[in-house]
Task: structure prediction
Amino acid sequence: MSTIRITETVRDALQGLPGFISTEKKTAYIQSLLKVGFDCIDIGSFVSPKAVPQMADTCQVIQNLDFTESGSQVMVLVVNEKGAEKAAGIPQINCISFPYSVSPTFLQRNLKLNNQHAIEIVKNIATSAYANRLEFIVYLSMGFGNPYGDDWSLSLLNDTVSAFYQLGIRNMPLSDILGEASPDRIFSVYNTLIPLFPDVDFGLHLHTKPSESFAKLEAAYDAGVRSFETVLNGLGGCPFAADEMVGNLSTQDFIAFCDKKNIPLKINREAFAKAAISGSGLTS
Result:
């Protein structure tokens, strides 16, 4: 992959906000994002509204959007076969994702699943996704280390990737949800995995302090990563990872990184500026 692929993760931006954002406001915001030219937009999720109330209106938001002038893929996150079947019945959705975790502790904390059960669910979702011609992404949360005390090594990570590779999965972004991965660790992980699985898209889903984002992005890019997940204004975080959420990689910071490195992007800068203004009003 020689070009940069950007997934704008609206879901991750909104899921941890305390006050419910209205369907109308979400729709208007995402509509502005559809004009920017992102490769993919993670619109929402099909999970229990008790667990993530902010995503309870994902279906309605999708129905309210006008996709006629957008070339962006539309992605939703699912955590079980029921969610995958629901996504398959909505023609606007091109892609579904599953939040696997290399950490058994976080897998239990996030999804209330053990490793064996989670892999079985991934297998079933993959079968459904491919039958319905949907792209399927499996996130490897805690892909750069384990803050919960579970075992972690490049060998264990490689075994996990191999298991999903055998299921036909070729898109596995690595996640640093707590923002603890060092640039050296990020480079080492990708520099190991990418040569071993050259046909897999190992993207980067990064939670980080703004002051640390450039060095981490540089490490990933130098190791060969070309797919990045961002959030306008750095909103959000995972409400199940820790008591205090770490914000997402800011889209503005990512664009600044690319500009400084002379890396071309395919986005509409004018539309992006308008979307950033719209996004600023989400929490007001």
User: Anything to note?
Assistant: Strands lie at 5-9, 40-46, 73-78, 95-101, 135-141, 174-176, 204-206, 227-230. Residues 165 and 239 are 29 Å apart (CA to CA). The longest helix spans residues 115-131. The chain has one domain: 5-280.
